Amino acid sequence: MMPSIEVKDLKKSYPKRISLPFRRVEWVEALKGISFKVRKGELFGLLGPNGAGKTTTIKILTTLLEPSWGSAKVLGYDVVSQAREVRRRINLVAEGERTLYWRLSAYENLRYFASIYYVPKDEAEKRIRELLQLVGLWERRNDLVMGFSRGMKQRLAIAKALINDPEVLFLDEPTLGLDVQSALFVREFVERLVSEEGKTVLLTTHYMAEAEKLCDRIAIIDGGRIIALDTPENLKRLVSEGETVEIRVRNLRPEKVKEIDERLAVSEEDPTHGTLLLRGNLDEEDLPRVVERLIRAGAKVLSVERVEPTLEDVFIKLTGRALRD
Amino acid sequence: MAFLAVMEKEFRMFFRYPLRVVSSVLVGLVFLVQFVYFGQAVLGGRYSSILHASTGVGDYPTYALIGYVLWWVSVSPMEASVWGIRRELQRGTLESNVASPMGLLEMVVSLALSWMLMDSAIMAVVFLTGVIAFGVSLSWVALLKALPIVGLAFLAFLGSGLVFAGLVMVFKNIGPFAQIFEFLVLFISGVFFPLSTLPAWVVSLSKLIPLTHSASAVRKLLVGMSYLDVTGEVTWLLVLTPLYWLASYALFKWAERTARVMGYGGY
């Protein structure tokens, strides 16, 4: 069966600086040759820290950017030479809240986007009603978007992205900056889109729990490269059970952590209490030695706990860094 | 139709800022009044035989009013390209439009057309106010006769203004650069004074500007001359319009490709 998305050796470089008068252009490699396939009806996640290349990948797949090398196909159509065919069949929830017209109402926004996606008028009216009801904004349809909360804007952005009933939906950090309730709504909604409507979804996130809960398969991306690709369960198997440790310390500067042990990374920083939560994959023999080194470095060890491995531990194991770094 | 949706959206958003609408009309009137009184002061009265001899229109308010209104409309596609696209970039909505099947070219042309129609509505108010305030005598027949020329002029204005759509996608903030052109057009296309007062090389240069010919043709028709009297101007417009559209299209395609390499955002 033809994959919904097929990416082969994709590379992308951006010009960084044009310094006059020499007109010297420096190129920054955002993608260094990534390849993956997404099956029809799959919820596929791109997980990685900021600047890893997630948004660049989505922009190439949604025809907003041209790759420097390699190829990408969506539903069998090349994203460069058949961009228009791709655009008819996909839609995108872009990162950030300013992807809608704030001076238009919710209804006017959807009607506008229905028109530029060439949705027939009668069908558009029906779909706008359904979508606004589905995202819980039907009662507020005539209100200007500028009066909406961040969560409401994101719900409307999702409704907008479904206006052309796309076969493939791209979601770029869909829960970024949302309150807990709105984020939960978005996650459940995305799950339903895949399980009930059979949509193919490619989602980028840097929230590990989100990727773990939602995605059928996850590609972990770092520095423009895919460093692991599998189901969440298989990825977590990369870290041996019982190996993961969480150590909460006080009086330790984050930059000192790597000097103590390369396998440790800062998972959380609490400036109010002056504490750091360190995570790492350490076996039985190493743990006492690491704790001793922490104490010798002047840190006060508050707790040491063995925990279930998460995708963050996979990331730490593969890169030596926590996802937040 | 996608272009109708873009136009409807632009009109809705424009008229949701009532102060902006009123201010636009007032700005139009303030500049007009200043230019007309300044011109009359220089000429020593409202009628000038020199003006009549070189342009066919001797009444200065009539001369200035027509040129001024057409200038305002002529630069609106340029303004739409520069400020309209910039606003989409700042709002973060440009990529939502580009990623749709409508595509960027249709969006930009629709945006320019919307702005030109909005400016035409504002200028219609300014024009009527000017006609009444300065006692300009015009006939409905002459106005109707001028409409085909105005339509042709609009096509030429759109083509020339869209040159800037390509530039704004690559260079982003070109507002001040575009304003130089706007005022250059005002200066060398015979809006407030006849071209005969300018050096020969400037007059030659002015022939490349659609406003020069459209203002001249509309003035002649509004003072009662026939289509035969404006064949020269119409020929120029018919030659310039496709040239500007072709140049705009080529520049736009280059800019679109460049933007797809560098990214549309990052304003």
Q: Helices and strands in order, then pairings?
A:
The complex is a heterodimer of chains A (325) and B (267).
Chain A: E1 5-19, E2 24-38, E3 43-47, H1 54-61, E4 69-74, E5 77-78, H2 83-89, E6 90-93, H3 106-116, H4 121-134, H5 150-161, E7 168-172, H6 180-195, E8 200-205, H7 208-214, E9 217-222, E10 225-230, H8 232-236, E11 244-250, H9 257-260, E12 264-270, E13 275-281, H10 286-296, E14 300-306, H11 311-319
Helix pairs in contact in A: 3-4, 5-6
Chain B: H1 2-15, H2 18-43, H3 49-55, H4 60-74, H5 76-91, H6 94-98, H7 104-133, H8 140-161, H9 163-171, H10 175-188, H11 200-206, H12 210-222, H13 231-262
What CATH calls the topology of the largest domain in chain A is Rossmann fold
Number of domains of chain B: 1
Count of individual beta strands of chain B: 0
Mean pLDDT across all residues of chain A, rounded?
89
- Uncertain stretches of 5 or more adjacent residues of chain A: none
Distance between the termini of chain A: 39 Å
The quaternary organization reads as: heterodimer
Characterize the structure shown.
The complex is a heterodimer of chains A (325) and B (267). Chain A folds into two domains: 5-236, P-loop containing nucleotide triphosphate hydrolases (Rossmann fold); 244-319, Alpha-Beta Plaits, CATH 3.30.70. Helices cover 32% and strands 30% of the residues of chain A. Chain A has eleven helices and 14 strands. Chain A has helices at residues 54-61, 83-89, 106-116, 121-134, 150-161, 180-195, 208-214, 232-236, 257-260, 286-296, 311-319, and strands at 5-19, 24-38, 43-47, 69-74, 77-78, 90-93, 168-172, 200-205, 217-222, 225-230, 244-250, 264-270, 275-281, 300-306. Chain A has a six-stranded mixed sheet with strand order 6-7-8-3-9-10, sandwiched between helices. A four-stranded antiparallel sheet of chain A has the order 2-1-4-5. In chain A, helix 3 (106-116) crosses helix 4 (121-134) and helix 5 (150-161) runs parallel beside helix 6. The radius of gyration of chain A is 22 Å and the shape is globular. The model of chain A has no long low-confidence stretch (mean pLDDT 89). Chain B is mainly α and 267 residues long. Chain B has one domain (2-262). In chain B, 79% of the residues lie in helices and 0% in strands. Chain B contains 13 helices and no strands. In chain B, helix 1 (2-15) crosses helix 7 (104-133), helix 5 (76-91) crosses helix 8 and helix 12 (210-222) runs antiparallel to helix 13. The longest helix of chain B has 32 residues, at 231-262. Chain B is globular. The relative contact order of chain B is 0.14. The interface between A and B is medium-sized, with 32 and 30 residues.
